[in-house]
Amino acid sequence: MTEPTHQPSDDAADARSSDAASRHVPVLLERCLELLAPALEVDGAVMVDSTLGMGGHTEGVLRRFPHVRVVGLDRDTQAISLASERLAPFGDRFTAVHAVYDEIRDVLAELGIPAVQGVLMDLGVSSLQLDETERGFSYAHDAPLDMRMDATTGLTAADVLNTYDERELARVLRTYGEERFAPRIARSIVRARQEAPLTRTGELVDLVRASIPAAKRQTGGHPAKRTFQALRIEVNHELDALAAAIPESIEALAVGGRIVVEAYQSLEDRMVKQAFAQGASVSAPPGLPVVPDTHQPYLRLVTRGAEEADEAELARNPRSQSVRLRAAERLRATPDHLRPTPRRAA
């Protein structure tokens, strides 16, 4: 985790800021603002945008709530730079930090913020990462097999494809991509890399397409979609980070604070649903005549199930097609027996 960063504004920065705004339409922005409003309208409110990206959601918050301060987290240094330029006009109301979202309480401790009134998480791959074709997130363009959200560290997708054994590759594709043809694709990858290491997304797309029966390629979108999702999740340890980030984010909330999460695939949404359901449920054994305060729910579900984009949102922003939005409000402190194990010092 790095120190908070602030970027000055100049003519070049203004141009890059405008470019960031034009390239990114935040998903369900108005609904997110509506859900966060009761918590953010209090004096001195602070919100954490745990997935800063190009800053679209944060800009919406800063404009709608003139007294709110936002701390923006992102593991992508390019996103930090673009968002900082875009949000420079808001001065010290915005602080950018290079960090993964499961580090939220470490970041707040370093900034001297004991608790926040809002947390926003917009999960998955960002518009920036998809648009930068050389980063290898998209199956629509030939590029190096990278897929790292933080390009400064960690294994690339090429490393995974060229070093994991066949059984492990199949597990990754099946578990993270829900790919029914995972064994066939893994077998093709291992066979191909015996001739030469895989280095380009185009090579992988061709391998996946050839591994899936022709009749099955006609439905379900691009045949490589699930494989690319699985590799991205594996390379960035997304589900491990999310499993820690949800309880850490809840612990960062003050009483009355709200958390809003936008997920784009079933594995993420299931984790969010389960964490919120645990917090909104009585944790005492069934049959007790009186439920102790220490076993009362500590969250209230603000949305009824997962909300989806309506027709107007879909027309405005095609990326919203698969979004599943959930929100919850903190009612009281988390009971000791349900509190997450403290993270090791960063």
TrEMBL record:
GO molecular function, one term: rRNA (cytosine-N4-)-methyltransferase activity
Domain of life of the source: Bacteria
Main location: cytoplasm
Basic and acidic residues compositional bias, start-end: 326-339
Gene3D superfamilies recorded: Putative methyltransferase TM0872, insert domain, Vaccinia Virus protein VP39
Residue ranges, annotated region (Disordered): 307-346
Subcellular location: Cytoplasm
Reaction equations catalysed: cytidine(1402) in 16S rRNA + S-adenosyl-L-methionine = N(4)-methylcytidine(1402) in 16S rRNA + S-adenosyl-L-homocysteine + H(+)
UniProt: S-adenosyl-L-methionine binding residues: 55-57, 74, 101, 122, 129
Family under the similarity heading: Belongs to the methyltransferase superfamily. RsmH family.
PANTHER family assigned to the protein according to its UniProt record, in alphabetical order: 12S RRNA N4-METHYLCYTIDINE METHYLTRANSFERASE (PTHR11265:SF0), S-ADENOSYL-METHYLTRANSFERASE MRAW (PTHR11265)
Stated role: Specifically methylates the N4 position of cytidine in position 1402 (C1402) of 16S rRNA.
NCBIfam families: 16S rRNA (cytosine(1402)-N(4))-methyltransferase RsmH
Name of the molecule in the record: Ribosomal RNA small subunit methyltransferase H
Gene: rsmH
